[in-house]
From TrEMBL:
Signal peptide as annotated in the record: 1-18
InterPro entries: LpqE-like (IPR007410), Lxx211020-like (IPR058248), PCuAC_sf (IPR036182)
Keyword Transit peptide attached: no
Protein name: Copper chaperone PCu(A)C
Source species of the chain: Jannaschia donghaensis
């Protein structure tokens, strides 16, 4: 009986940690950000976006309350002649039909800019993601301490 109770507690705890959101044919899996060092003015947001539909969609924007960040952009990181470059993605992030797009360090990500305070482990950042066709969906980016995300297949962000 004790083993059954322990198993149930573990399953409930695991379900509370994983958080997915849905709008239309779009599923957003585990949006998270990494705690910043001190009061760093920027931080990255990550997630997996799956389009189960038969038509392409586009993530157009992400917004957060102004008391969290003064600006939010969709970014892409690339290497050009050995130099790391980060830039806003013009026109949004394409989410092709039947595919999953991973927003992660070293690639596509949400960039929280002009943070009012650094991001702290355990903090929750309410955000609205806007898709061209699916529309708006409210999500929560859970702030995780650096290194913790690596055990879940995420590789962090060096912002």
């Amino acid at each position: 009986m004790k083993n059954l109770i322990l198993l149930a507690a573990l399953l409930i705890g695991g379900a509370a940690h994983a958080h997915d959101y849905r709008v239309g044919d779009i599923t957003i899996a585990h949006p998270f950000a990494l705690a910043t060092v001190g009061n760093a003015p920027v931080g990255g947001g990550y997630m997996e976006i799956t389009n189960a539909g038969d038509t392409d969609d586009v993530l157009l924007s992400a917004t957060v309350p102004e008391e969290v960040a003064g600006m939010v952009q969709l970014h892409e990181m690339s290497i050009d002649n050995g130099i790391m470059r980060m830039s806003e993605v013009a026109g949004g992030i394409a989410i092709p039909a039947g595919e999953t797009v991973v927003l992660k360090s070293g690639g596509l990500h949400v960039m929280f800019m002009r943070l009012q305070e650094g991001l702290k482990d355990g903090q929750e950042i309410p955000a609205t993601l806007t898709f061209r066709d699916a529309g708006d969906v409210d999500v929560i980016f859970n702030v995780e301490k650096r290194g913790a995300a690596k055990t879940e297949g995420h590789d962090g962000h060096g912002d």
